[in-house]
Specification:
Elements: E1 2-7, E2 23-27, E3 30-31, E4 42-43, E5 45-50, H1 56-65, E6 73-77, E7 81-86, E8 89-94, H2 97-100, E9 130-133, E10 152-155, H3 156-161, H4 165-176, E11 181-187, E12 190-196, E13 203-207, E14 211-215, E15 221-226, E16 231-235, H5 236-243, E17 254-258, H6 272-279, E18 294-301, E19 306-312, H7 319-328, H8 337-343
Antiparallel strand pairs: 1-5, 1-6, 2-5, 3-4, 6-7, 7-8, 9-10, 11-12, 13-14, 14-15, 15-16, 17-19, 18-19
The structure holds zinc ion.
Zinc ion (ZN) is lined by residues 116, 118-119, 121, 155, 158, 284.
């Protein structure tokens, strides 16, 4: 099977993708806080799969469908090859993905690879303990010789334990605290220029020994990032919790994942510790109990081993960040979105 993501807005007007049986497995709508010239603010990623034998065919078809302006590209991968598709151009790279995402026969999650990019084990997304790097983030493994793209999920504990933790955090910080930067990418002997979308956390409001806190300049959103470890995004509800003297709770909503194998028999009644235990990854979530996670089983679709669940948890913020935010939160002034709309030429 091949899997990839296509941004609907990257299609040129009049484009028609016919004759390639793509299965859309997830459709999302995301706000990009900073985008390249000729790119809209809202993107619609279409996560798709297709039969692997047809890898070169969708690549060629997609190349004819992408808009020639705007720096658009799409990418998909098979077990061994990564295809990066530009307008009227395809570059195939053999064997890139396994370097960044070790495969151990684990399942592919509905929207990203479910194997940890560091340890290769299954990643259950729990806010504050795991996350993912989507392919359109264009994050590069600067600690590897070929600067391959990092795509997939990760346990935060594995990031903390990795020899590459500082480089990973530095590269993430470049993306998170900027408004997009141009990067060049060598593929099949050619240099491609791409726009790495920034997350727009440009205003640093705290710098401690272990972590920094940045505020978005377009949304009521804050990023706590460790210099050699993971990151946590806090939005207005979390700041309001802190302002009221409560611990912030992260509620990312319902997650869909494909389990790596047949699950435990009583999955619908399992607790979170029982689920993690049955998946064999309990030790990847150290200190999880302190986050008082509330786990809720939603649905299990056995034929495709798709589990839908939700977890709400308190993120394990560094003590210095928590202390700063306790002082900061009561006095924060929400962003005036009406004023932003008036000033924003994109809206
Ligand atoms: Zn891991």
């Amino acid at each position: 099977m091949l899997a990839g993501v296509l941004i609907a807005e990257s299609l040129r007007v009049g484009a028609q993708l016919t004759g390639v049986p793509l299965q859309i497995i997830e459709l999302a709508r995301v706000e990009m806080t900073s985008t390249g010239v000729d790119q809209p603010r809202y993107w619609t990623p279409l996560y798709f799969t297709a039969a692997e034998s047809e890898a070169s065919r969708p690549a060629a078809e997609l190349a004819t469908c992408l808009a020639p302006t705007g720096g658009w590209y799409t990418d998909f991968h098979t077990a061994t090859d990564t295809f990066v598709v530009f307008a009227d151009k395809v570059s195939a790279t053999h064997g890139v993905r396994p370097k960044t995402a070790p495969r151990k026969g684990k399942a592919v999650m509905s929207n990203e690879h479910a194997s940890c990019v560091f340890c290769g084990e299954f990643v259950l997304h729990i806010p504050g303990w795991a996350s993912s790097v989507p392919s359109y983030r264009l994050m590069r493994a600067t600690w590897q010789e070929d600067h391959a793209f990092v795509v997939g999920s990760l346990h935060f504990s594995c990031l903390r334990a990795s020899p590459a933790r500082s480089e990973f955090a530095a590269e993430f910080a470049q993306i998170a605290t900027g408004h997009g930067r141009e990067i060049t990418y060598q593929a099949a002997g050619e240099t491609q220029t791409l726009i790495q979308p920034g997350l727009g956390y440009v205003e640093q409001i705290f710098r401690g020994d272990e972590c920094a806190i940045h505020r978005s300049d377009t949304r009521d959103s804050w990023l706590v990032r460790e210099y050699a470890g993971p990151w946590y995004v806090l939005d207005r509800p979390q700041l309001e919790d802190i302002a009221r003297g409560k611990r912030p709770r992260l509620d990312p909503g319902v997650e869909r994942i494909v389990l790596p194998r047949e699950p435990m028999a009583d999955l619908a009644d399992a607790t979170l510790p029982e689920l993690l235990d049955s998946l064999g990854v309990t030790d990847r979530y150290p200190g999880l109990a302190a986050g008082e996670p509330e786990y809720e089983f939603w649905k299990y679709f056995a034929p495709k081993r798709v589990l839908e669940y939700a977890v709400i948890a308190t993120p394990p913020l560094p003590a210095e960040a928590a202390a700063f935010l306790r002082d900061y939160a009561p006095g924060y002034r929400p962003i005036d979105f009406d004023a932003l709309e008036r000033d924003d030429p994109r809206s």
